[in-house]
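step 3/5: co-fold with uridine-5'-diphosphate
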Amino acid sequence: MKISIVIPVFNEAAGIELLIQRLAKVTAQLSSHTWEIVFVDDGSNDDTVDTITKYRHLFHGPLTIVEFSRNFGHQPALLAGLQQSSGDIIFCIDADLQDPPELFGAMLEKQAEGFDVVYAVRKTRTESWPKRWAYKLFYRLQAYLTEIPLPVDAGDFGLVTRRVAEIMIHSADKDLFLRGLRGWSGFRQTGYEYDRPARAVGQAKYSFVKLLRLALSGLFGFSSLPLKFATGIGMISVGGCMIYGIYALIEKLFLGSTPAGWTSTVLLILFLGGTQLLSIGILGEYIGRVYKQLQSRPLFVVKKTTALE
Ligand code: UDP
Ligand code: MG
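step 4/5: write tokens
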């Protein structure tokens, strides 16, 4: 079988040599398949591309670099890699070796049992505890909210067969959340558990804002439940206000001891103001996405594609 390895890279020069070395070793051990590597350079401003060219000889097989005209983000880079790839099976991995290539063999064995998707599940992580908790919380919230089957603690790392990759490539989603599309595609899917190591070198290239954006794409792109949340909160607060209104009337008409009522006023203003702002925010998230989808700009611009000899 022909297998493609798709790797988005953004300022990863420091780790490239080790990455290609480890990929070369693993693919040599699995030599009953033919392998290709597709790097997508997501607008790096260090010498990532030159470094790939320099160590390219370590890997014996076709290797392509797709270069973006600027930084478009990890998800668009993955998509470009999928488009460029030609394998029957495609692995998506990070460049920082947090997704160990040594798992390829075991994942291929799983695939051979008849699965179209084998995604890696992070049993443990090495990030700081606030980040670990944020991940945990996000995956569970997301699984609870979405209307499609989405595994928890699984990222983009894993393999997909050609037919799943084609669905991801042709989705026309402008707000990309590829692992969501992967789950949405159906077919038989399974997880493969592993302990996620720390980065081999360098700092995370996903900033807090980028991570948050990805998380929101996952939530709002695959669920309309948040829209209903506004309705739910609205109904509860209207009910609460009616009860309180009746109490206020009784107090005024029969008990005659109307207090100054500062506390209740403040509480009501805070509660209603808060829920209104939240609801408007939720609407905004969807409207922003509808707008982006309507503009239908390409998700990335390719500056150059090189097949390295
Ligand atoms: N990456 C990218 N574009 C970006 C940010 C990250 O292509 O704007 C790549 C990065 O080079 C790496 C992968 O995406 O190969 C995952 O990034 P990182 O390790 O920073 O993410 P984390 O480990 O925090 O999920
Ligand atoms: Mg990483």
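step 5/5: annotate
The CA atoms of residues 146 and 223 lie 5 Å apart.
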